[in-house]
Every structure is written in C-alpha cells, then in structure tokens.
Specification:
Length: 73
Amino acid sequence: MMDSHKTFPWYLSVMYLLPVLLCITITLTMVIRYTKTASPQVSIAESELREETARADEILREQQAQDEAELSK
C-alpha cells in the first residue's frame, strides 16, 4: 500500500507563502501611504481647533474683564 501523502521540500512551501506575504506587504504600503496623505488634513483640523480655542480664551478674558469692571463700579 502506497502512502498518498507527499511531503514537499521546504523551498516549495516557501513558494506557496510568497503570494500571502506579497498581499500583506501591499496592504501595509497602502495603509502607510494613506496615513501620510491623511496627515495634512489632521494637522489642518488641529490648527483650526487651536484657533477656536484661542478665540474662546479671548472671549472669556473679555467677559472676565467686563465682570470685574461691573463689580468695581
């Protein structure tokens, strides 16, 4: 009775893994490129948030100055 199960040499098993590794590599490079292109949009949003925070701080200071002026009258 012949054994129908064949064992492949190690280099053939590596050849079967190459397409999987290629797909993983392509996916990672796409993710990295997308992250790099999305970064300026994030920095724009952060700068807008900083501007809004600065405006809110200025309004708060003006309100506090008005309140102090009213209290000193």
